[in-house]
Amino acid sequence: MGGMSGDWDEVDMSKPLVLVDMDGVCADLMTPWLLAYGSRKNRLFTVEDVRNFKMETNAGFDDGVYEFLRRDGVFADLRPIPGAVQALRHLNDTANVYICSTPSRNPASATEKLRWCGRHLPFIHRRRLILCARKDLVRGDYLIEDSPDNVRDWALANPQGKTILIDYPYNACASPSYRTCSYQKPEQAWDEIVAFIDGGGR
Fold it and tell me: Which residues are catalytic?
């Protein structure tokens, strides 16, 4: 029985395998999320208010913060984080890039993430999108993340791999292989990521 072929399944083993998170790394989820929650609470929230990755544990937050993620269309309409698309276009030429993201409790989020990648990252084949809740089960040479828990768990499961963390207030506790500059300078952060990977993780 013949299978499909194409660039998506032609892995060049001489190139590193790079796993890239979506939300907070190449797609800006936090801005509309905090805006929606702030509107509900009649209060202005910023990323600086988010000191813990588990949103409901932060001061002024409760379990209702996750209601936003259950809405249809949330993930399809996110804006790319500045610098991410250009950097991933470069890495797609020098590495085997896979988008590795966790879907929300809304079943539609999986389709929306696929649609987002097709719109903003058309140079990465749709079959290089991995949706899973356990990223530590996915092997690779690099993991680009913002979640401290994912960085910790993946590093334990992939001792030869390197973790790259975009610096946010909520991941200050993590100890990645490489931490970029602040999320407030996203283009510089992505330049640092590209330089780290192109330099062989040194």
Answer: 21, 23
